[in-house]
């Protein structure tokens, strides 16, 4: 378990301004109604610059390469939740969690904690990232998603569902003896994304707070 804890803090790359500048350039370019080819050529040039950089954060260029051309027909791709998830959300979280072989990821219909038959309450987040050992599965982050203009038709909001799922995940890590456990939740509501983290302040008190909020600029 100590090896797992060390993995979380193994490397924090430096943050520089390239990412914000590139996002602004993408927004300005889209405002000019470019052709698909011109947009793709800009993305290729951006990706080439990122590959020459020593800063891992510059790999945000890979996200822009995958997402920016799709924004030309954003309205059409946002009508269905599955299409919205795989066109715009998946490239972002894949760039974050896909870089480490230790993480496994599933979209939709996967029961939380890998204990479908044993859990009294079965949670099915829209997306989950976990680590799997020989004896158990450790869920570390979950995501709940609603497409733009989508509404929550269930009796429980996605915000409440996310909190309950994170509580269950944290309890599992405590039960197996993980020191200083932390779990994350990602709430995507159309063009807005809020990231939460939950951890133990003491043996009986759990803290839950938003750690970041991002809004899509266009």
TrEMBL record:
Q: Which domain of life is it from?
A: Eukaryota
Protein's UniProt name: Uncharacterized protein
